[in-house]
Amino acid sequence: MTCHRILIKLIPLLIISALFLPRCSNILASRDIQGEEAAIPPDMGLVRLNLDNGSPLNRSLLPNPVFAYYELVFTDAGNSDNSITETITGKNTAVSIKAGVWNLAVTAFVRRAGQDFSAAAGESSSPLVVEAGGTTSAEIFLYARTDGKGSFSYTASFPWGLDKAELTLQSFADPSVEKKVDLLASPGLTNPGSFDELPSGFYLLFLSLEKDGQVAGKTEAVHIYDNLDTRADYAFTASDFAKAAFFSGTVSMSDALSADYTITAVYLFSSDGNEISYMYDTTIEWPDWTIRARAYSGPAYFKVELGKDTDSDGSPDIFRLSKSQPINLSTEGKSGIVLTVEKYAITGISSVVTPDLTEAFEGDKITLNIAPATGKQLEGGTLGYTYGSTTVKLDELAAVPSFTMPGADISIVAGFEDVPDAGLIVDGVPVTPAPTGLTTALANIATDVTGGSYPSAGKQYTIVLGANEAIGPQQLIYPGKTVTITIKGSGAPRTVSLSTPSSSLFALGNGVTLILDDKIILQGIHNNNAPLVVVNSGAVFEMHESTGLIDNIFNATGTLDGGGGVYVASGGTFTMTGGTIADSGALSGGGVYVASGGKFDMSGGTISSNSSQRGGGVYVASAVTPSSGFTMTGGSIFGNHINISNFGGGGVYVASGGEFVMDGESTINGNGNIFDNGGGVYVASGGKLTMKGKSSISGNEADERGGGVYVASSGEFVMEGESTIRGNKSTADGGGGGVYVHSGGEFAMNGGIINSNTALENGGGVYMTGGDFTMNGGTISGNTAASTGGGVYMTGGGFIMNGGTISGNQAASSGGGVSVPGGVFTLDGGTISANTVDDGLSGGLGGGVSVTTGLTTWGKFVMKTGSIGGNQATSSGGGVYVKGLNTDFTMEGGTISGNTAPNGGGVYAGSWFTMEGGSISVNIASASGGGVYVKEIFTLTGGTITGNTAPAGSGVFVVYDFVMGADARVAADNRVFISNNVTAGTDPGIIELSGSAGTDPIAVIDLDVNSGFAAEQWAGKTLLERGGGFGMATPLPRSRFILGNFVNPQTPSVSVPIDPAHYSIDATGRLRRQ
């Protein structure tokens, strides 16, 4: 493979689109939020920071740093000798600075062994204009230092039997600096490894896989930071491999663009936006390119990626994608493809909304200049852009609204309204003279409510703020009165900051409704002893579009239990249709605390970058009434985390009796618990989580158990509809990358998808330990466990599968689909297919299902209906593997077909296996037992064994005891092989008859012989025995068995037919030589 500055790669559109978020939070980073301890002095303004360690396109693999702190250096744009240095600990926070024009440089530090190292740095792209009393925003991208050293660690799992598996890490600036590893040289399911002492900077990663002439793999860009580790985890299944073809052509780019950009990649998609293939071989002679990719026929399109070096180190720091170009492809390949670098169009431009660019590459940052006409202001919730049927709303609270250009032509949209006069409006009538400021307006409302005759239906008050304001705590409590107060900004976003510590900005009493309507930000205090807003019984708090509640750390030393942002007491109601709750914290519920009997409805907005001990984003206590609890039908909870060990719920914590319902397109993503359980959601004992609609829990991490969801003892989780749990991780010694169900917990899966989750140990998709799991529908697919149970792992309790699919999962040692080292697994419908188990050393057990127990554990598998097909194991039990003193497998119906393994293509019976019905067919064993390998006792009373293949025992391979009932049949095309067990020094295997019905032959027997084919060794040995249902006076039915061949299983290609003239079975069931 020739590697140049032009990197050709092909990756899924789904992945690319996920990278176009304008802000990507580090889910495990420390977030000490710094609010303003007092009112901002009149000659100062507020700078709101967003520090991001990546390019705006975020197409690279980045380290997961926990930066100790950030150093900010503000330099006067007009006098470089005048500078101010600040130190902060949060990535998303605000600092106050004297009004003026400033350049900002940021350095991020990590702490190792008590020493601080500057790992990354960045600076503002343009001077910051800070106005007295105003707020401005600054987004700083942090790039790796080029004079340090870091590391890259990885895991890579893939099917067994690969011809090539190679990982290469190559410096972009100097391709001669290269690290390479042959993953087949040290085989294992996850192939963990690392490259240490790498010079910091930008690298290209190539992961190349080949199997039977088909290819798969991955190519990515990697950032290496000083004293940090960048990590990647890859999982491939058989479906990722495909036939390859060559495609080639040229790239055409104008001289103006080529002066600034380098071509770094070419992406290839099918017409519906799905991945066509990963590139396998690339040769480049600029401007010509050739790639070997998945063979594809039909409409497709390409995109060209561009890289730009911003610090002259030779490495691209920003990346852009050109406009897509449709093309028709052939499975035989195609040449002469001309890719022209073009930009996407931006329309909807007017004199009042002007973007800084009128055309842009995908990934370009677009800033908007909003200049409303005189007397007009931006209407809340209207600013955004559209493409096709999609509308994306923008943050209207930002001083300079911006977004990352999507891969489409777009149109800017915005609505404007008359600027309201600052003051107070009562039931639609302005109060004159207008009160000055929020405090005065609230005082006027209190006087109006408590004095004179006040209507029982209440009044509607609207406060319009024309400036930022710092105020003390406000008790909006009016006993026996109905009061609705709306606060909105005039002309621009207005910040109301709390000036007094140890207090709430607003406390709402019975009958009071407080609405944050438009352009209002409530800001708290870093070391506060109260939630920012308290919603008492009978009160209502609403947040609408373009509102914010930020920067309040509640230390929970008072009488309340938590809620850095909002505390919803019993009987209180909080409705969030938009806005953001961010950068806050508490002992419980960093963003929101829903007390017992409280109600929180969220249909829009975001809860992000908060932290706590329980529920980094939201804490939900007992529901008490059917209408209480937390219902989320829209919006996002992301980037929150747990800040201390022994607690859980990075995104949401559902306490005993609490109820949390996710519906619509609500999302919980990118939250973390670096200490314990439940990266996304923690459901405590007695709590309940319901996922339905198109809700999603994705990209969360837990150090121990339940990367996506943790369900404690007596907790309950119901999943249905099109909901998804995807891409979550359990990263340490626990398990349950997607879901963990503790002893006594309950999980009912009626629909939805659990996909692409990973566990460092057991249960890539689901882990159960003594709980109950009922699967009536849905899909568990593409999950990976580094030990056992790629799809599902259970150590106790019960798992009943009535429907749905468990497919394409992987495990290292056993149970690619399902692993049962304890408990009862009942398959009564659904499909377990295309799962694999591979430890890299030909020791994988139970591709579909593995049931193994020890001396003190008990496991049982009952198969009533359903199918187990197309699974693979590298050692034994392609479909099912059962072993252990206390293990029992009963097959009453269903099908086990199309599975493969060296021993026991369909089933490996290392313990008790009873087949009463169903079918074991078309399975393949490369060594022994195509249908069933009998190491202990196999009882066949019904069902069919047919169409299986193996060199020895195509139907059944008998090491110990094969019990055949009256109606038992093994098809004539499937031989029953009886092992002589000479090597083991034990008695030969036997067939035990428990009754006899009919007159047709019930099996064809092959006999085991050692090298040299000493057939005499069988003379006088027992082949058949009477069982409990076979009369002692009745002769053994010799005619019911056909003697087949003498077979040496060590040399399976050689077999000798048994001559019936010289060998027969006598009435005692022994082989006689004539």
UniProtKB/TrEMBL annotation:
SMART domains: PbH1 (SM00710)
Cited InterPro entries: Autotransporter_pectin_lyase_C (IPR012332), PbH1 (IPR006626), Pectin_lyase_fold/virulence (IPR011050)
SUPFAM superfamilies for this protein: Pectin lyase-like (SSF51126)
Highest taxon listed in the record's lineage: Bacteria
Name this polypeptide is given: Putative extracellular nuclease
Organism the protein comes from: Treponema primitia (strain ATCC BAA-887 / DSM 12427 / ZAS-2)
Source species taxonomy: Bacteria, Pseudomonadati, Spirochaetota, Spirochaetia, Spirochaetales
